[in-house]
Amino acid sequence: MKFPDTRPRRMRKNESLRKLVRETELSLSQLVMPYFVKPGRNLKEPIESLPGQFHWSPDLLLEELEEIQGLGLAAVLLFGLPSRKDEGGTEASSPEGSVQEAVRRIKKNFPELAVITDVCLCAYTSHGHCGVVNERGEIDNDRSLEILAQTALSHAEAGADIVAPSDMMDGRVRAIRRSLDQKGFESTAILSYAAKYASAFYGPFREAAHSTPQFGDRQSYQMDPANREEAMREIQMDIEEGADLVMVKPALAYLDVIREAKARFQFPMAAYNVSGEYAMVKAAAQAGWIDEKKIVFEILTSLRRAGAGVILTYHAKEAAQWAKAGSGALAGGLRL
Ligand code: PBG
Fold first, then answer.
1. What is the pLDDT of residues 83-92, one digit of tens each?
2. Tens of pLDDT, residues 257-278
3. Cβ pair 156, 107 in contact under 8 A
4. How, if at all, do strands 54-56 and 44-46 pair?
């Protein structure tokens, strides 16, 4: 009896058997598609560093969202670009900002679509940092918190379902929760970028969001890629401060962090499959070196397997298109 080594093999004989023992499933309802919104009308401008991604004006974004809903996607993440940048990132909290306008229009037209807004100042400040900077050239954490809380509130007022602070200032989840509650937005949720590493994988995003720091880097507020215990402390703090979902970012080089956080906290987890991860796949696919569909489904599956319930990915729309075209089967029978 070759019992121990033949049993797994017997269950791999055909797709039905493989499905019976499959541990991880991926569904479109778990994917979030990010969009970059800029002020203006009738704009859909390609982003060079992110092939297939665009800067959208709020009006054209509406048409795009109608399309992705038709494909079965149900959640989007919006990043805003301002009409002008300044030291304090003033436009981030303006009711007339591109994100605020887009959210109002989306919620009016598609109330069922889950709208998540990125809350950060880096695209809005002239220096490109995620918070405001004091006379000594350091990030002023507490002053930044006030502005971030105002920004989150302006998104909630526009109708955002979830606000997602990505700045990594200390105490921002509590500050945002408090200001939302004070103004009657108890039911607006917070997705915190809880463990956000100081990563080179954000390169293409910074080009897209025009948010590269003009001096210094983000290492004083983003995490050292060498640290996992610290990630657990950051995540724990954000849960205690009132986050409804916590995120690990980037995703692929940090699967161990996702896994450990899920096991430790048993809390809803999100993973951000960031711009650099997307750009690498696109570049290799364009060169004909990899099978993009298979790679994407394998990546998304790995994030689910690690413990992410929610996956933010620039591949969401294409994954939905592939699934619709029936090529989900290429992904080893993933149910999509
Ligand atoms: C803003 C922010 C960044 C990303 C999301 N929000 C970039 C950064 O911290 O420089 C990166 C997303 C991506 O790379 O896709 N703070």
1. 999 898 999 9
2. 999 999 999 999 999 999 999 9
3. no
4. antiparallel
C-alpha closest to that of 170 among 264, 240, 81, 272? 240
User: Which residues, at least 6 apart from 172, have a Cβ–Cβ distance to it below 8 Å?
Assistant: 144, 145, 148, 149, 165, 192
Question: Catalytic residues, which ones?
Answer: 196, 249
Write out pLDDT tens, residues 102-150.
999 999 999 999 999 999 999 999 988 888 888 888 888 899 999 999 9
pLDDT tens for residues 46-75?
A: 999 999 999 999 999 999 999 999 999 999
Distance CA 241, CA 221 (A): 18
Two tokens at 336? 């999509």
CATH fold for domain 23-332: TIM Barrel (3.20.20)
Query: Taking a C-beta distance cutoff of 8 angstroms, is the pair 180, 221 a contact?
Result: no
* Backbone dihedral angles phi then psi of residue 330, each to the nearest 5 degrees: -60, -20
Tokens encoding 202: 């954000």
Residue 99 CA to ligand 1 centre (angstroms): 16
Averaged pLDDT, 32-49: 96
Tell me how far the alpha carbon of residue 196 lies from the centroid of ligand 1, in angstroms. 9
Q: Ligand 1 within 6 A of 206 CB? A: yes
Domain ranges of the chain: 23-332
CA of 276 to the centre of ligand 1 (A): 10
